[in-house]
């Protein structure tokens, strides 16, 4: 095959392409005049591509922008800048009927199954709502047949239709959330921490259900989690986020075998290993200080305030690009090769106090006046 053919095959295989996506929420003060005094840089320049049928895991600490990125992909929050291209169409430019159509093809499973299901609606009404909105509720009989199919697909009995969310356990409620997403026959599902609110004993069942459904229906997933252990087995590829950007992206195996970004190494070092011998030899990297505020992200490399490999002065002055170190393995660190090859050693990091008020000199404040939620 020639190079052009290979490239075009890869192109058509991509279902979702995100390019330099930004979501900046304005911080407003003032009683009479709503004055914008800064921005929360929740998502700040994310680029990634997800192939059809793939599961892409998105991990990072609380507040690093995972949910906002997921919502911006579905246009449940208006992006400040960048492109979300879904199956060849720029989602940002869609309006009215076109936007509604693309929304049907992208669905979200929410982190907290209880608060995302209306307690006053029966399961039947929850499941038919989306179908009706997208014109899939054609006649009573076929709708009922579809509801039965959906419940069977997520492992719930038909009697569930007449019940209300509070009558179910956490795991069952998440099954209802999954059925609601499936009801409109989507191609892409963004699952936002789909199991983190569930008991450990039912987490595996829900993960297995998601995997089975993917196989049966050819779904593409973005699975969000704050801990790498949850996404490891379900993901083909994983993106690690820190303060609004991707710092590393690789196949799940490559990321675990050879994490190249200091932040990923720290995240992985926090996962205990069952084998006591391996556990004793395990590299443990404790990160100094808390996650800085996304309203005042550090200059240069956003991780430099906590990085045990930080170098003077490039790390604090120049923002590293996400660059490919090995095929499909992208890292945003100026010194990734030197760290990998042991040419730069780890050092102690003193926790820095985060100044909430000061504005970062390298961020452009001429952003949008307002970002509206459009759920
Ligand atoms: N509607 C909003 N208005 C203003 N700020 C927001 C809004 N939504 C999120 N943020 C802020 O954006 C940042 C990223 O939030 P987000 O919920 O995307 O993080 P997350 O990675 O999903 O965190 P978690 O793991 O806790 O769910 C946070 O600082 C959050 O406070
Ligand atoms: S660029 Fe510098 S501060 Fe950032 S991760 Fe690499 S070594 Fe650490
Ligand atoms: Mg979240």
From TrEMBL:
Keywords: ATP-binding, Nucleotide-binding, Transport. One of its GO terms (biological process) is peptide transport. SMART domains: AAA (SM00382). GO terms for molecular function: ATP binding; ATP hydrolysis activity. Residues 16-268 form the ABC transporter domain. It comes from the Bacteria. PANTHER family: D,D-DIPEPTIDE TRANSPORT ATP-BINDING PROTEIN DDPF-RELATED, TRANSPORT ATP-BINDING PROTEIN. NCBIfam families: oligo_HPY. Belongs to the ABC transporter superfamily. This is Peptide/nickel transport system ATP-binding protein. It comes from Amycolatopsis xylanica.
